[in-house]
Structures are given as C-alpha cells and as structure tokens.
Design a protein that fits this description.
- Helices cover 73% and strands 6% of the residues.
- The chain is built from 19 helices and five strands.
- The strands form two sheets. Strands 4-1-5 form a three-stranded antiparallel β-sheet.
- The longest helix has 40 residues.
- The chain is mainly α.
- Helix 11 packs across helix 19 and helix 15 packs antiparallel against helix 17.
- A hairpin with a 2-residue loop joins strand 2 and strand 3.
Length: 436
Amino acid sequence: MEQILAIFRVPELRKRVGITFLLLFIYRLGFQIPLPGVDLEGIRAASEKIAGGSWGALFGIMNAFTGAGIGNAALFSLGVMPYISASIIFSLMVKVVPALEALSKEGAAGQKKINQYTRMATVPICLLQAMFIYSGVLRNPAYGMLSGGEGFLYGFAVVIALTAGTMFIMWLGEQITEHGIGNGISMIIMCGIIATMPSAMKQTMEVAENAHQLLVTMTALWLGTVLVVVYITKGQRRIPIQQARMTRGRKVMGGAKHYLPLKVNQAGVMPIIFAGALFMVPQLLGTIPGLTWFGDLFNQAGFVYISLYVTLIFFFSFFWVNLMFQPEEIANNLKEYGSFIPGIRPGRATSDYLQFVLNRVTLAGSAFLAVIAVLPTLLTANLNVSMMVTYFLGGTSILIVVGVALDLVDRLNSHLMMRNYDGFMKAGGSGWARRS
C-alpha cells in the first residue's frame, strides 16, 4: 500500500499514470462506435454462431487480441492484430535477412528504421484483414449483421474505417510508450482482455445450470493458473559468468561475477499463436461439403487435435527460441569481452554448453505452454463453457495479462527506486560536503 501511495506522490509518475489511463479510456471508447450499416441487434446472435462454428477458435484468439471488437463490429474491431502480425514478421526477418540484421545492430537509429518499416507493413495487413472481416463476417447472410447496403462504396468505407481505427490504436500505443507507463501495445492488449472479462463471466453464468458452483470452480482454476503462470514467467536458469582478471601495475581489474539469465518461457505466447493459426487449415477444410470427416477428425476435444496441437507447440517453441537466442553469438561476445563460464572453455565449448542448457529449459517451457494452451479446450469440454469465454478466462489471455502486469510492476518499481535513490544521494552528498 505504501508503494501504491508513493506512485501518486511523485509528480512525474502521477502524470504518466494519468496519461496512460486517459489514452486507454479513449481506446475503449472506440469500441462503442459501431461500423456504418451494421445491425446492432444481430451482432450478439452472430457472435454466438461464430463461436459455435468452425471459426470459433480463430475468432477466440482474434477477440483476445482485439478486445472482442470483431464480435461487436466496432470501429476498432481489428485492434492491434495487424501491427502484431507485422512485428512478428519483422522479428523473423531480422534473423533471416542480412540487411535487416545489420540494421538492427546499429543501435537506436537502426531500431527506429525497423519500427518505421513495421508501421508501413501494418497498412497492407490492415487492408487484407479488413476485407476478410467485411467479406467473411459482415456480408455473410448466415450471420445477418448488415442492415442494408452491400455495394462497392460501402465495402470500401468499411475497409478504410477499420484500417484507420487500427492506425489510430497504433498511435495511441506509441503515445503510451513515450508519455505513459509500460509498453503501449501490450497495455492496449491487456486492457482489451480485462474489459471483456465481466461480460464473459456474465454470459457463462446465464447459461449455466449451477451458476454458483461453476463460478467457484472457474475462479479456483483461474487463480491457480495465474499463480503457475507467474511462477513460470519469473522462472530463470541463471548461468554463472566470470569476468577475467587483469593486472595493471598494482591494480587488479575485473574478476566480477554475474549471471546470464535464461527464462523458462522465452518464447512467450508465440508458439500458441503459430500453432492455433496453423490449425485453422484443417478446420476450414472440414466446412467444405464432402470433407466433413476431416473436421470431425480434428475435433477440438478429440485425441488427434490435442496431440497434434501439443506437438506443434513444442516445435514452434524450439523454433522460436533457437531463432531468437543464438548460443554461438553469445559465446563469441563473452570471449571478446574476456568473460567465461567457470569450468567451460571459451568458444565452441561455451556455445555447446549454452545450447545444452537452452534445450532443456525450452523443453520445460514448452510443456508449460502446452498445458496452458489445452486448458481452454478441456474447460469447454468438461464445464460446458463456450470457446469464446474460455479464451478470455484461460490459456492465451492469462499469459498476456500476467506478462504485461509483471512488466508494469517492474517499471513502476524502477521509477520508485530511481526516485528514492536520487533523493538519498542528494541528502548524503550535501551532508558529506558540510562535514568536510
């Protein structure tokens, strides 16, 4: 409580927190603006049809990132998904394309250029996803979400409105990062997930036979999952690093000891997103006449679906970690700066040791992600809860919310520690000068 009150005692921190809440309020305000020509009464029925159909898993993930904007057919329906897609693409390209890799090593200037390329790539992705929403959701007669008007000009207006909404959200995220607290895009995603939790719980309680028992069960499962996610997210494998000692005259320099932290869940939520996106293919094929057996084979509660889903999560976890974490590069950097791992020779032996430890840490993180990813499917099958609800109360959403919340707490603590450290030095310095 003392630290919470200290946030509002520091003028700069109080201003940053106020700006963050104001911009997040503007972000949520955009979800109250419906797209033109949309039948508001048919939106809820359409959301239920989508959730119960073959598109349920896809829209569950998309709604988790957009704050249920797709189901509401609002101005901010796409959310920050296009920007996230562009960021993932450039994160992979930086490790593959030599020109981008060299640009990323130029420091702040190179990162600024990559961010600019990411913003530019967001626009075509916005247009494609907006056309998908218009043609696949709004114009679908089975959903009945349009009250009238399906011409070219109307579709063009909807696509431009959705694209403009996403670009405005991206600008809000940049303003939060610069003038507020935490990473703006991550804060927007977390805000969208938290804002939909009350309605998701209400929807679950309305259709439940024993609402009180279901509420207690889901609350206990959710709290237990949060505790496990926090434990694994903060978990690290610390590799001791010894700095070489250098003797110059009578002075001995170096010799400091520090650690190289390897997170248990280094891949974050990326493997779940990749595996879920890849599993859309068999589910969509199952909707084609004559291939319904394909959809039945990959039933979300079936053994084949869960087994392949877990396998893909393990594969993408190792793929992402080995792509982003280069043991050879780290070993060369340690050798260049005169550091080494005690008991391990510098160079090739250090690289092999880091790869050995990384594989086992990634194995534990992959198992954790597999359990988190399968949890919504098990809840849907055993508790009779819709897929759209479970995506907000478990699985991917918990990983995002807990990760962003922990990062926010660390940033607040760093601001408070910096403030206290500055005041301590001023008081100590003045006193030492007077005593002298």
